[in-house]
Specification:
D-Maltodextrin-Binding Protein, domain 2; 10 helices; disordered C terminus; 21% strand; two-stranded antiparallel ribbon
Length: 298
Amino acid sequence: MRRVNLDIDLLRCFATVVETGGFTAAAKTLLRTQSAVSVQIKRLEATIGHKLFERSKRSPLLTEQGEMLLGYAHRMLKLNDETVLRLTQTEMEGTLRLGVVEYLAPHRLPEIISRLKRAYPRLDLRLRIDLSSKLHAELEQGKLDVIIAARTDNKDHGQELFREQLCWATGPLGIPNAQDPVPLAVLPHPCFYRQAAINSLDQQGRPWYCAVTTMNISGVQKVIEAGLAVGVLSKSSLLPSMTVLGPQDGFPSLPMISLGVFSNNYDSKFAIEPVMKFIADCVVDTPHFVAQRGAVTV
Protein backbone atom coordinates (compact mmCIF):
# COMPACT_ATOMS: atom_id res chain seq x y z
CA MET A 1 0.00 0.00 0.00
CA ARG A 2 1.33 3.39 -1.05
CA ARG A 3 2.09 5.68 1.89
CA VAL A 4 0.40 9.07 1.77
CA ASN A 5 1.95 12.05 3.57
CA LEU A 6 -0.43 14.67 4.94
CA ASP A 7 0.66 18.28 4.40
CA ILE A 8 0.78 20.19 7.70
CA ASP A 9 -0.17 23.42 5.91
CA LEU A 10 -3.33 21.77 4.53
CA LEU A 11 -4.23 20.38 7.95
CA ARG A 12 -3.77 23.83 9.52
CA CYS A 13 -6.03 25.34 6.88
CA PHE A 14 -8.67 22.66 7.55
CA ALA A 15 -8.51 23.17 11.34
CA THR A 16 -8.71 26.95 10.90
CA VAL A 17 -11.87 26.68 8.79
CA VAL A 18 -13.53 24.74 11.62
CA GLU A 19 -12.18 26.96 14.41
CA THR A 20 -13.12 30.27 12.78
CA GLY A 21 -16.52 29.11 11.55
CA GLY A 22 -16.06 29.16 7.78
CA PHE A 23 -13.96 29.71 4.69
CA THR A 24 -14.21 33.52 4.68
CA ALA A 25 -13.14 33.88 8.31
CA ALA A 26 -10.36 31.31 7.84
CA ALA A 27 -9.03 33.26 4.85
CA LYS A 28 -8.74 36.40 7.00
CA THR A 29 -6.97 34.49 9.78
CA LEU A 30 -4.55 32.81 7.35
CA LEU A 31 -4.04 36.00 5.32
CA ARG A 32 -5.15 34.26 2.13
CA THR A 33 -8.01 34.63 -0.30
CA GLN A 34 -11.15 32.58 0.16
CA SER A 35 -10.50 30.83 -3.14
CA ALA A 36 -7.02 29.82 -1.94
CA VAL A 37 -8.53 28.31 1.20
CA SER A 38 -11.08 26.41 -0.90
CA VAL A 39 -8.29 25.07 -3.12
CA GLN A 40 -6.35 23.83 -0.10
CA ILE A 41 -9.40 22.05 1.30
CA LYS A 42 -9.96 20.37 -2.09
CA ARG A 43 -6.30 19.28 -2.14
CA LEU A 44 -6.69 17.75 1.32
CA GLU A 45 -9.90 15.99 0.25
CA ALA A 46 -8.11 14.61 -2.80
CA THR A 47 -5.23 13.39 -0.64
CA ILE A 48 -7.40 11.41 1.78
CA GLY A 49 -10.05 10.46 -0.79
CA HIS A 50 -13.04 11.76 1.19
CA LYS A 51 -15.18 14.89 1.36
CA LEU A 52 -14.55 16.83 4.56
CA PHE A 53 -17.54 19.18 4.43
CA GLU A 54 -21.16 18.81 3.41
CA ARG A 55 -21.71 22.02 1.53
CA SER A 56 -25.28 23.35 1.57
CA LYS A 57 -26.99 26.64 0.84
CA ARG A 58 -26.91 27.67 4.49
CA SER A 59 -23.66 26.37 5.92
CA PRO A 60 -21.14 23.55 5.38
CA LEU A 61 -21.02 20.81 8.01
CA LEU A 62 -18.23 18.38 8.80
CA THR A 63 -18.76 14.94 7.30
CA GLU A 64 -18.10 11.81 9.34
CA GLN A 65 -14.62 11.62 7.81
CA GLY A 66 -14.13 15.35 8.49
CA GLU A 67 -14.92 14.89 12.19
CA MET A 68 -12.50 11.96 12.32
CA LEU A 69 -9.75 13.94 10.61
CA LEU A 70 -10.24 16.95 12.90
CA GLY A 71 -9.11 15.00 15.96
CA TYR A 72 -6.00 13.71 14.18
CA ALA A 73 -5.30 17.17 12.71
CA HIS A 74 -5.26 18.80 16.14
CA ARG A 75 -2.90 16.16 17.49
CA MET A 76 -0.55 16.46 14.50
CA LEU A 77 -0.55 20.26 14.61
CA LYS A 78 0.09 20.21 18.36
CA LEU A 79 3.06 17.87 17.93
CA ASN A 80 4.39 19.90 14.99
CA ASP A 81 4.14 23.20 16.84
CA GLU A 82 5.65 21.85 20.05
CA THR A 83 8.55 20.35 18.07
CA VAL A 84 9.25 23.59 16.22
CA LEU A 85 8.94 25.56 19.46
CA ARG A 86 11.44 23.38 21.32
CA LEU A 87 13.98 23.27 18.49
CA THR A 88 13.88 26.87 17.24
CA GLN A 89 13.00 29.07 20.21
CA THR A 90 15.46 30.20 22.84
CA GLU A 91 14.83 28.36 26.10
CA MET A 92 12.44 30.44 28.17
CA GLU A 93 13.28 30.91 31.82
CA GLY A 94 11.75 32.89 34.65
CA THR A 95 8.57 32.94 36.68
CA LEU A 96 5.17 32.96 35.01
CA ARG A 97 2.24 33.89 37.28
CA LEU A 98 -0.77 32.31 35.60
CA GLY A 99 -4.36 32.85 36.72
CA VAL A 100 -7.09 30.47 35.54
CA VAL A 101 -10.82 30.90 36.03
CA GLU A 102 -12.12 28.32 38.47
CA TYR A 103 -14.62 26.58 36.21
CA LEU A 104 -11.88 25.43 33.80
CA ALA A 105 -10.06 23.57 36.58
CA PRO A 106 -11.85 20.18 36.56
CA HIS A 107 -11.87 19.32 32.84
CA ARG A 108 -9.25 21.49 31.06
CA LEU A 109 -6.61 22.71 33.48
CA PRO A 110 -4.61 19.46 33.96
CA GLU A 111 -4.02 19.10 30.21
CA ILE A 112 -3.13 22.80 29.82
CA ILE A 113 -0.56 22.75 32.63
CA SER A 114 0.93 19.44 31.47
CA ARG A 115 1.51 20.71 27.94
CA LEU A 116 2.85 24.06 29.18
CA LYS A 117 5.42 22.34 31.39
CA ARG A 118 6.51 20.05 28.54
CA ALA A 119 6.97 22.97 26.18
CA TYR A 120 8.71 25.23 28.72
CA PRO A 121 10.47 22.91 31.22
CA ARG A 122 12.58 25.71 32.70
CA LEU A 123 9.65 28.00 33.31
CA ASP A 124 8.76 28.47 36.99
CA LEU A 125 4.96 28.32 36.88
CA ARG A 126 2.97 29.91 39.71
CA LEU A 127 -0.71 29.03 39.36
CA ARG A 128 -3.71 30.83 40.84
CA ILE A 129 -7.29 29.55 40.44
CA ASP A 130 -10.07 32.01 41.24
CA LEU A 131 -13.14 33.86 39.97
CA SER A 132 -12.73 35.97 36.83
CA SER A 133 -13.33 39.28 38.64
CA LYS A 134 -10.49 38.61 41.09
CA LEU A 135 -8.13 37.46 38.33
CA HIS A 136 -8.76 40.63 36.30
CA ALA A 137 -8.11 42.76 39.40
CA GLU A 138 -4.83 41.00 40.16
CA LEU A 139 -3.72 41.28 36.53
CA GLU A 140 -4.31 45.04 36.61
CA GLN A 141 -2.42 45.27 39.92
CA GLY A 142 0.57 43.49 38.38
CA LYS A 143 0.20 40.42 40.61
CA LEU A 144 -0.37 38.09 37.62
CA ASP A 145 1.28 37.92 34.18
CA VAL A 146 -1.36 36.00 32.19
CA ILE A 147 -4.93 35.06 33.00
CA ILE A 148 -7.60 32.91 31.38
CA ALA A 149 -10.89 34.50 32.42
CA ALA A 150 -14.31 35.67 31.32
CA ARG A 151 -14.52 38.54 28.84
CA THR A 152 -17.00 41.26 29.76
CA ASP A 153 -18.05 44.50 28.07
CA ASN A 154 -15.40 46.53 29.83
CA LYS A 155 -12.69 43.86 29.50
CA ASP A 156 -12.89 42.94 25.83
CA HIS A 157 -9.21 43.55 25.06
CA GLY A 158 -8.21 39.94 25.57
CA GLN A 159 -7.99 37.31 22.88
CA GLU A 160 -11.26 35.36 22.78
CA LEU A 161 -10.79 31.61 23.13
CA PHE A 162 -14.35 30.32 22.90
CA ARG A 163 -17.97 30.92 23.87
CA GLU A 164 -20.12 28.55 25.87
CA GLN A 165 -23.83 28.45 26.68
CA LEU A 166 -24.97 28.96 30.28
CA CYS A 167 -27.73 26.62 31.49
CA TRP A 168 -30.18 26.33 34.36
CA ALA A 169 -29.49 23.07 36.19
CA THR A 170 -31.52 21.20 38.77
CA GLY A 171 -31.23 17.86 40.57
CA PRO A 172 -33.54 16.07 43.01
CA LEU A 173 -35.24 19.41 43.68
CA GLY A 174 -36.92 19.11 40.28
CA ILE A 175 -38.76 22.06 38.73
CA PRO A 176 -39.65 24.73 41.31
CA ASN A 177 -43.28 25.82 41.47
CA ALA A 178 -43.85 28.87 39.26
CA GLN A 179 -45.46 30.76 42.18
CA ASP A 180 -42.58 30.11 44.61
CA PRO A 181 -39.29 32.04 44.76
CA VAL A 182 -36.48 30.17 43.00
CA PRO A 183 -33.81 28.91 45.45
CA LEU A 184 -30.44 29.71 43.85
CA ALA A 185 -26.98 28.24 44.34
CA VAL A 186 -24.59 31.07 43.49
CA LEU A 187 -20.98 32.19 43.60
CA PRO A 188 -19.97 35.36 45.51
CA HIS A 189 -20.49 38.80 43.98
CA PRO A 190 -19.20 39.90 41.50
CA CYS A 191 -19.76 36.86 39.28
CA PHE A 192 -20.97 36.61 35.66
CA TYR A 193 -22.95 33.42 36.39
CA ARG A 194 -24.64 34.96 39.44
CA GLN A 195 -25.52 38.18 37.61
CA ALA A 196 -26.84 36.29 34.57
CA ALA A 197 -29.18 34.28 36.79
CA ILE A 198 -30.44 37.30 38.73
CA ASN A 199 -30.87 39.54 35.68
CA SER A 200 -32.81 36.94 33.70
CA LEU A 201 -35.17 36.17 36.60
CA ASP A 202 -35.69 39.88 37.34
CA GLN A 203 -36.51 40.57 33.69
CA GLN A 204 -39.03 37.73 33.77
CA GLY A 205 -40.51 39.09 37.00
CA ARG A 206 -39.93 35.82 38.83
CA PRO A 207 -38.99 35.95 42.55
CA TRP A 208 -35.78 34.32 43.75
CA TYR A 209 -33.47 34.12 46.76
CA CYS A 210 -29.87 33.01 47.36
CA ALA A 211 -30.31 29.67 49.10
CA VAL A 212 -26.61 28.78 49.08
CA THR A 213 -23.50 30.85 48.33
CA THR A 214 -20.40 28.76 47.64
CA MET A 215 -16.87 29.68 46.64
CA ASN A 216 -16.44 27.48 43.57
CA ILE A 217 -18.22 25.72 40.71
CA SER A 218 -17.77 22.29 42.31
CA GLY A 219 -19.66 23.65 45.31
CA VAL A 220 -22.53 24.76 43.08
CA GLN A 221 -22.56 21.30 41.47
CA LYS A 222 -22.77 19.58 44.87
CA VAL A 223 -25.60 21.85 46.04
CA ILE A 224 -27.58 21.08 42.88
CA GLU A 225 -26.93 17.34 43.19
CA ALA A 226 -28.12 17.47 46.82
CA GLY A 227 -31.43 18.99 45.72
CA LEU A 228 -30.93 22.17 47.75
CA ALA A 229 -31.19 24.71 44.94
CA VAL A 230 -31.19 25.49 41.22
CA GLY A 231 -27.95 26.76 39.73
CA VAL A 232 -26.44 28.27 36.59
CA LEU A 233 -23.60 26.29 35.01
CA SER A 234 -21.76 26.32 31.72
CA LYS A 235 -22.71 23.49 29.38
CA SER A 236 -19.37 21.75 29.96
CA SER A 237 -19.88 21.86 33.75
CA LEU A 238 -23.19 19.98 33.70
CA LEU A 239 -23.13 16.55 35.37
CA PRO A 240 -25.04 13.46 34.14
CA SER A 241 -27.30 13.55 37.20
CA MET A 242 -28.55 17.06 36.40
CA THR A 243 -31.58 18.19 34.40
CA VAL A 244 -31.41 21.32 32.24
CA LEU A 245 -34.32 23.74 32.66
CA GLY A 246 -35.57 26.06 29.94
CA PRO A 247 -38.53 28.17 28.80
CA GLN A 248 -40.72 25.06 28.70
CA ASP A 249 -40.13 24.77 32.46
CA GLY A 250 -40.80 28.44 33.14
CA PHE A 251 -37.14 29.50 33.20
CA PRO A 252 -35.79 32.36 31.03
CA SER A 253 -33.03 31.98 28.47
CA LEU A 254 -29.47 32.64 29.61
CA PRO A 255 -26.58 34.31 27.75
CA MET A 256 -23.37 32.71 26.56
CA ILE A 257 -20.11 33.21 28.41
CA SER A 258 -17.01 34.30 26.52
CA LEU A 259 -13.60 33.19 27.76
CA GLY A 260 -10.37 34.91 26.80
CA VAL A 261 -6.65 35.08 27.56
CA PHE A 262 -5.27 38.39 28.88
CA SER A 263 -1.83 39.76 29.70
CA ASN A 264 -0.14 42.85 31.12
CA ASN A 265 3.40 42.54 29.84
CA TYR A 266 4.79 45.74 31.32
CA ASP A 267 7.47 44.34 33.63
CA SER A 268 7.91 40.87 32.20
CA LYS A 269 11.50 39.64 31.86
CA PHE A 270 10.64 37.58 28.80
CA ALA A 271 8.42 37.82 25.72
CA ILE A 272 5.02 36.65 26.90
CA GLU A 273 3.24 36.52 23.51
CA PRO A 274 4.50 33.02 22.56
CA VAL A 275 3.34 31.71 25.93
CA MET A 276 -0.08 33.33 25.50
CA LYS A 277 -0.48 31.78 22.06
CA PHE A 278 0.60 28.39 23.37
CA ILE A 279 -1.91 28.58 26.26
CA ALA A 280 -4.68 29.67 23.88
CA ASP A 281 -3.95 26.73 21.58
CA CYS A 282 -3.99 24.36 24.56
CA VAL A 283 -7.41 25.59 25.71
CA VAL A 284 -9.16 25.26 22.35
CA ASP A 285 -7.46 21.92 21.59
CA THR A 286 -8.64 20.13 24.74
CA PRO A 287 -10.90 17.17 23.82
CA HIS A 288 -14.00 18.50 25.62
CA PHE A 289 -13.96 21.74 23.64
CA VAL A 290 -13.19 20.12 20.30
CA ALA A 291 -16.15 17.74 20.77
CA GLN A 292 -18.53 20.69 20.97
CA ARG A 293 -17.56 22.02 17.54
CA GLY A 294 -18.74 20.81 14.19
CA ALA A 295 -20.95 23.27 12.31
CA VAL A 296 -19.23 26.05 10.41
CA THR A 297 -20.51 28.92 8.32
CA VAL A 298 -19.18 30.53 5.19
